Amino acid sequence: QKEVEQDPGPLSVPEGAIVSLNCTYSNSAFQYFMWYRQYSRKGPELLMYTYSSGNKEDGRFTAQVDKSSKYISLFIRDSQPSDSATYLCAMTWTGAQKLVFGQGTRLTINP
Amino acid sequence: GAGVSQSPSNKVTEKGKDVELRCDPISGHTALYWYRQSLGQGLEFLIYFQGNSAPDKSGLPSDRFSAERTGGSVSTLTIQRTQQEDSAVYLCASSLELAGGPTDTQYFGPGTRLTVL
To answer: Is some CB atom of chain A closer than 8 A to the CB atom of B38?
Structure first.
């Protein structure tokens, strides 16, 4: 079993919809949780970063962490075609340098 | 400013040949990371450099893989006697290491797409 599980999709939704992306994990030592966005043939870029449990909002994006359930989510409101990309969750623990990534979810927003 | 650059962008090689992949981090970034992205596998950590030293090389899959960094800047990932299962996108990232650890944002390059025939 992988340390971080993420449904690879693909996920296709109409423009304007609310998108929910999720990851589960097994390592209770994880304290730092990130969401990366990766466009085709590009490297991932950091979207959101959260420490421990709770919510964080940045514009149309909201990241949620539920450590008791070992479950993290990314919500995208008012989704746009430009949001079409692969979204990767990543996490790590205090003192570590490397990130442990989920498989990535391929998202398409249809105009 | 310039981001992380990697070369070549694509590499096709024959099984058994050696390949070298290059990473130029963002100027001034002391930390450098290599990851591998295989189809359906997500990103897998390979190695982390702090300056020219590699305190964590736990992700290198076999002794056919090695990496070095010189002058605290450019890094080269070498794969010897390539196998078909080595086919993947190899991504490099760098970070400033202001605070040290997970709070330092890793900036990724576009990757090198390696195909082993």
So the answer is: no
Compute CA distances A66 → A34, A69, B64, whole Å. 13, 6, 40
Query: Which residue out of A97, A99, A106 would a mutagenesis test of the B interface target, given it has the greatest number of B Cβ atoms within 10 Å?
Result: A97
Residue A35 in contact with partner chain B when CB distance is under 8 A: no
Among the partner-chain residues B43, B103, B107, the one whose CB lies closest to the CB of A101 is B43
What whole-number distance in Å separates Cα of residue B5 and Cα of residue B85? 24
Q: Output the tens digit of pLDDT for each of chain B's 117 residues.
A: 589 999 999 999 999 999 999 999 999 999 999 999 998 778 999 999 999 999 999 999 999 999 999 998 999 999 999 999 999 999 999 998 766 566 688 999 999 999 999
CATH superfamily of B5-112: Immunoglobulins (2.60.40.10)
Q: Determine the structural domain holding residue A55 and report its residue range.
A: 4-110
